[in-house]
Amino acid sequence: MMWFFSVLAGLLTGILSGFGIGGGTLLILWLTLVSGMDQFHAGGINLVYFVCCALPALISHWKNGLLEKKAVLWCTLAGVPSCILASLLASNLDVTLLRRIFGVFLLFIGCRELFSKSKRKTGS
């Protein structure tokens, strides 16, 4: 029966990812807190999950003209080497430390979202 809830968690987090809500973060929480998986393996699964969710989102944004080509270029040039370095660093970190770093990151993002003022554009 646990497999059913895992599939359901993957489905729901995939839908949330499509809306840009951060389903991958929720998936890591599911894998570590509910499924009992260690942080390092949950992060690896999240990367595969991200690729599967990001490709359809990228195609949709491309078709709708929502990509800024300069931003894509600079983010790719900075992101690829950063990902390689971060993965090498993460593979040498203790899993407990990795989990704590992830927790602090979630706490920081949550507080920032909770206490930041919304910059909503109003239509005229």
From TrEMBL:
Organism (species): Neglectibacter timonensis
Keywords of this entry: Cell membrane, Membrane, Transmembrane, Transmembrane helix
Pfam families, sorted: TauE
UniProt protein name: Probable membrane transporter protein
Subcellular locations according to the entry: Cell membrane; Membrane
Database matches in InterPro entries: TM_pro_TauE-like, TSUP/Inactive_protease-like
Record field: transmembrane: 7-33, 39-59, 71-91, 97-115
Family: Belongs to the 4-toluene sulfonate uptake permease (TSUP) (TC 2.A.102) family.
